[in-house]
Design brief:
single chain, Thrombin, subunit H, six-stranded antiparallel beta barrel, six-stranded antiparallel β-barrel, about 40% helix, about 30% strand
Amino acid sequence: MVGQASGGRKHRRRDFHIVLGLLLLSLITINLPFEAQREIGNALRESVLKPFIEVQLMVARTRARAREYLTVRAQLDSALTFVASAATLAEENRQIRDLLDLHERSPSRLVAASVIRSGTSGSSSVFRLDAGAGDGIRSFDAVVTAQGLLGQVQEVGPGSSMGYDWSHPDFRVSAMIVTNEGQAHGLVEAERGQFREQDRLVLRGTAFLSDLEPGARVLTSGRGGVFPRGILIGWVGEVAGASAGWDISYYIDPAVYPGAATYASVHVVMPADTLQAVANTADSVAVADAFR
């Protein structure tokens, strides 16, 4: 009995030392510069945590495929019907382009990826994509779904990448609203709610005399060269606030709800695409229609 009691005290002492060491290590890590924290995180993800991350990605893919099977089957049936009727439309489009002497426009490159959430506390706005630098993805590339803008890539690894959606406090995007009188511009950012479901998008910096109609489409403007021009962000909602004589803010009904996104595409911007998008506003509105 004495030996067992002594062994128990040793185990408790050892556990105490381990917990104390981990606590000190966490305090040191928290106080490191942001770049050092990022390098340590990348090193851990590419070494010790890599097997666990791979297992998480595999489990997430399996669950997503099982959940989406019936949806994909229905989409396939619809696609087959569309393809059967698309040949005639493609030929008519080619003939019209020949008549107008238009050059074929190179499509924007989209890299498909699964959106994986860790589910841990404090990471509700962060997601992982199962595509990375090997697929041409770079930091700050836009992440979109069929409905519109989801978020932005932040860190890129060889085969995976991390990003955050529009509910993240650091999310910003220059926006434009096409109206009957022209265009209005502003900056869209997140306004955090008490709960995740209460997070909202707010359009700030719009001219005070801009009278935006509820339901007007809000698109990325392409200013700053980060987000491509013409991606649907959402629709104008109610007035959020105003600075007398200076600017007015509006709530935005988002086109994409982050928690519902399981698949997305990373918009790998090519220089030619950016130049052409900036040169032609009408084309940007047509691109937005594709994301409705």
